[in-house]
Design brief:
disordered N terminus; Rossmann fold; 8-stranded mixed sheet
Length: 364
């Protein structure tokens, strides 16, 4: 370690990156085959991306759906059926945080919060069907996509909930329809628990809820790796290491049906990460303060949720077994549980029609 400064930077980068890859592969070996995302942001050490573009939406000089690589060169745009129709907006929180969000369609606002390390593109396959009935709002959480990633913010769960509450009040209105997945669901539950928002209808997709996190070794490895970015000189190296760990092929493993389009999801989410030392330092702060262990205090929240609550679960999600949702259902006064068959962590990529159908039926 002390002799690292004497090594050429390319050699050090190669050595450090290979160590990261070796660590992840060793932990993933065996039972972890198609593990899905992170709870506590990256919960299960999969390719849930942290697309890190700057703190504001990409420049208008970059084609829609495109991103910039670490040299600032625009990459090929990812084509969507709604290209040219999706509206890009920016919400400014009072503390200076900027939240980029997309919206499509007209009607009651329906917001979808993505999982940790991914971006608004997690919902891309289901957007067209939902936009026929709703104004679909797709925010990028802070540290993700085109939203804020500056290390000046605390990145605690309480801070995320405060920003989400402000966003909902200004963009969605007083009683929104809102759904959250993985880390997005955790932020959403905390925002409700702390009275920062009151949805008219609430959809919770796979997340840890009140249960102990699955695969604690993978979570611990993520925390240690992310927190290492706080050390001077390692922030930039770690940002380059993500290119070797979170490959597009890993995105396909998050789909129970091995949908090849999931590779683009991961590619887009990590397109701007290599070389982004600011983002690496921000993730180090988040890893240090994100809640660990079972969130048993949620058992007290469930009976106080007087709005209709839909638990929309996948039957092949290894990180978030169905048992946790079945337990929570017993405490929800107006809860219901629906399971999408043959779906994994990326439900919108495994069954976009089924996902849109369940959301539409529940949200009206």
């Amino acid at each position: 370690m002390y002799g690292a400064a004497a090594l050429p930077i390319t050699a050090l980068r190669s050595s450090f990156s290979s160590t990261i890859v070796t660590t992840w592969e060793a932990l993933e070996a065996g039972s972890f085959a198609a593990a899905p995302s992170a709870s506590g942001f990256p919960a299960c050490a999969e390719p849930q991306p942290t697309s890190a573009s700057a703190s504001a939406p990409r420049s208008a000089s970059v084609p829609a759906g495109a991103s910039r690589n670490d040299r600032g060169v625009a990459s090929e745009p990812i084509q969507h059926s709604y290209d040219g129709l999706m509206r890009l907006r920016l919400y400014h929180h009072p503390d200076g945080t900027r939240i980029a969000y997309r919206e499509l369609g007209a009607g009651p606002p329906l917001a979808l919060l993505h999982s940790g390390l991914l971006s608004h593109m997690e919902w891309e396959p289901a957007v067209d069907s939902l936009a026929d009935r709703f104004r679909v709002v797709l925010p990028d959480l802070p540290l993700h996509g085109d939203s804020e990633d500056h290390p000046r913010h605390p990145y605690t769960l309480d801070w995320f909930a405060e920003v989400l509450g402000g966003f909902a009040g200004e963009v969605l209105g007083p009683r929104p329809l809102i759904a959250g997945h993985d880390a997005g669901a955790e932020v959403l539950l905390h925002a409700i628990l702390t009275h920062r928002m009151l949805p008219a209808r609430l959809v919770l997709m796979p997340n840890r809820l009140h249960t102990p996190p699955q695969r604690p070794l993978l979570r611990a490895a993520w925390r240690l790796t992310a927190r290492a970015a706080a050390a001077p000189g390692l922030d930039r190296l770690l940002s380059y290491g993500t290119r070797l760990v979170f490959t597009p092929e890993r995105g396909i493993s998050l789909s129970a049906r091995a949908n090849p389009a999931a590779a683009d999801l991961v590619r887009h989410a990590f397109a701007d990460v290599p070389g982004n030392s600011s983002l690496a330092r921000s993730w180090a702060k988040c890893a240090r303060v994100w809640p660990r262990g079972a969130q048993t205090h949620l058992l007290e929240l469930y009976p106080r949720l007087r709005m209709p609550v839909l638990l929309l679960w996948a039957d092949r999600d290894r990180c978030y077994p169905l048992g946790g949702a079945e337990e929570a259902l017993r405490f929800l006064p107006h809860g219901q549980l629906r399971v999408l068959e043959s779906t994994g962590f990326l439900m919108a990529y495994d069954d976009p029609v089924g996902l849109a159908r369940e959301l539409s039926a529940f949200c009206g």
